[in-house]
Specification:
The structure holds 2 protein chains of 2 kinds. By secondary structure, chain A is an all-alpha fold. Chain A is built from 10 helices and no strands. Chain B has one domain. Classes of the chains: A mainly alpha, B mainly alpha.
């Protein structure tokens, strides 16, 4: 096994908190491992929240840069993925506030394009359609759906990330699921 | 449409950034850090210069008072007073 391979294997076996300690001491490789390990979580959250890959990528970069600047203050009481997801959600919500008008316009156009399409057969088309449907929901409901149903966080973890009571998560989830189903089946004519 | 189908559709919404994403983040971090590094070198340089000046003043005057830093440590004030008084008279 080459040196590089063994270094990569060593980093893979390290716990997130150990990687953070080493990254604080200036080990760039450890920080790269943190980014590699958590980028899919951030991508899934940001793309489903924003509905746009490029915007999600920018948010993703901001998430890790913010974390890099503040990692010495990370208390290690919660999981790193939860902490990073919380930053992602906050940045996405701020971004959505700034670009709300533009988004509603482009959404109308996308819906029109989808309604003219006859088949939603392939997985990719399904993913696009679900993503589009998510953009129809209000931000608070969308955030709950993304965290609870897509990322698979528990109700308590979702409540912690969004800084709301567990009961609020449950009620928002119920309303979000009902709304999501209505849009998908009635407005976008999805038949499964 | 059944709730289970809906849950399956949502669970399938997984994404990832491309491999280049990690390098882009590291580049950003590098760029953010560079000015800080430059500033810290600048501050260190200024501090070392002040220290060297202080040592030079101490060696020259044998003390490190406000007057010696201003270069007025070895002035004879009584001479100045006399000069002024004579000038006025």
């Amino acid at each position: 096994m080459s040196n590089i391979q063994s270094v990569v294997k060593n980093l893979n076996s390290l716990h997130d908190f150990e990687l953070i300690n080493r990254a604080i001491d200036g080990d760039r490789g450890c920080f790269a491992e943190i980014v590699t390990r958590h980028k899919s979580t951030i991508a899934t959250t940001a793309i489903n929240m924003l509905g746009d890959m490029e915007e999600a990528k920018e948010i993703g970069q901001q998430v890790f840069i913010r974390f890099y600047k503040s990692m010495h203050t990370f208390k290690k009481e919660s999981k790193l993925s939860t902490y990073l997801t919380r930053i992602t959600i906050n940045l996405c919500l701020n971004h959505l506030k700034r670009t709300k008008i533009m988004q509603s316009r482009s959404l109308e156009l996308k819906v029109a394009v989808h309604q003219t399409s006859e088949h939603f057969s392939s997985d990719i088309e399904n993913k696009e359609l679900v993503n589009l449907t998510l953009q129809y929901l209000n931000e608070k409901h969308r955030a709950v759906l993304v965290l609870r149903m897509i990322k698979g966080y528990s109700t308590e973890e979702t409540a912690q990330i969004l800084d709301v009571p567990s009961g609020t998560v449950l009620s928002r989830l119920k309303r979000a699921m009902d709304h999501f189903k209505t849009i998908l089946t009635n407005e976008l004519k999805y038949e499964g | 449409m059944k709730d289970k189908d809906l849950e399956k559709l949502l669970a399938n919404q997984q994404y990832d950034f491309d491999l280049d994403f990690v390098n882009q983040v590291l580049d950003f971090v590098e760029k953010e850090e560079t000015p800080i590094r430059h500033i810290s070198w600048f501050v260190t340089g200024v501090a070392v210069s002040i220290l060297l000046c202080a040592i030079a003043v101490y060696i020259q005057d044998g003390s490190l008072t406000f007057d010696s830093i201003l270069g007025a440590g070895s002035l004879d004030y009584s001479t100045i007073d006399t000069y002024y008084i004579n000038d006025l008279l």
